[in-house]
Design a protein that fits this description.
CATH class of one domain: Mainly Beta
Oligomer: single chain
Shape: elongated
Structural class: alpha+beta
CATH superfamily of one domain: Glucose Permease (Domain IIA)
Largest sheet: 10 strands, antiparallel
Number of strands: 14
Helix content: 10-25%
Order of helices and strands: HEHHEEEHEEEEEEEEEE
Number of helices: 4
CATH topology of one domain: Glucose Permease (Domain IIA)
Length: about 280
């Protein structure tokens, strides 16, 4: 009885050791990893959808054509108008811009009147009086019949609107900066509050200070020209207002400038800057 009692625990212990030895000697196989990203889907890779082609910008079909301009980084409608001899309101109308502050780089804008029409300022321009004789006189023949007789008639100038412009100096101060390759206008010295006058009759195309280098600026559109008046202190006119030659439009200031002075420019309808001195009376 005694020997049997001691043998059974030893048998149980030996069995346990055998099981432990079997567990440690057999390599452990890892559980399979389940890929849930393809569960319920075909194993065939799907094609990536092609990206949509970007929509062309407004007016892109007119890029490079005469009378059109491609918007560059930093442009504003006012700047584009000044550089092309037009008012920003005209540009907005020609290009159907509901918000003139929203233009995109690469967008192509019409910068000349549609159909080649000549935009007028709404002001009747006085033609230059002819210094020669009238174009025709009337004589009588022996029968008393009146017949027109042509004499040295003056031929009309093809550029009548431009010829009719008779600009005056917009300020009586001293000329301190001349027109050159780097300066698109002239500068006239003065003191704060000096009157700034419209150099010719026209329609106010812009009043504001959104263009760097001009301060408080006024643009006036004439028949064939655009005049610019910069660095003002106070405005005396508003946009779309008709003004007459010699009318006070502002007071001289030093906005965006190092002294009290007037920055004056004349542009043609293509935006080309002209030397104002050649179009102003000598003094």
């Amino acid at each position: 009885m005694t020997s049997s009692f001691h043998f059974r625990p030893m048998v149980l212990m030996a069995s346990s050791l055998a099981l432990l030895a079997g567990c440690t000697s057999s390599p452990r196989t890892p559980a399979p990893v389940e890929d849930r990203t393809t569960m319920g889907r075909s194993s065939t890779p799907t094609a990536t959808p092609a990206a949509e082609a970007p929509k062309p910008l407004p007016g892109s079909e007119n890029a490079g054509k005469p009378g059109y301009y491609t918007v560059q980084r930093g442009d504003t409608l006012t700047r584009i108008g000044l550089d092309n001899g037009q008012g920003w309101r005209d540009l907005a109308r020609w290009n159907n811009l509901t918000n003139p502050d929203l233009i995109e780089v690469g967008q192509v804008l019409r910068v000349s009147p549609p159909g080649g029409a000549v935009e007028t300022s709404g002001v009747v321009v006085r033609p230059i009086a002819s210094s020669g004789p009238s174009s025709s006189v009337t004589t009588q023949d022996n029968a008393g019949n009146k017949e027109p007789t042509k004499e040295s008639a003056s031929k009309p100038n093809a550029n009548a609107n431009a010829q009719a412009m008779q600009f005056i100096w917009p300020s009586q101060g001293k000329l301190i900066s001349k027109f050159d390759a780097n300066n698109k206008g002239i500068e006239i010295a003065g003191k704060k509050g000096d009157p700034v006058l419209a150099a010719e009759s026209g329609k106010v195309a812009y009043v504001g200070e959104s263009l760097r280098g001009y301060g408080k600026l006024i643009l006036i559109k004439h028949n064939g020209y655009l005049t610019a008046y910069g660095h003002n202190d106070k405005f005396s006119v508003k946009e779309d207002q008709l003004v007459t030659k010699g009318q006070k439009i502002a007071e001289m200031g030093n906005t965006d400038a190092d002294a009290y002075k007037l920055k004056f420019e004349i542009r043609d309808t293509a935006g080309k800057a002209l030397n104002p001195v050649t179009l102003l009376p000598q003094r």
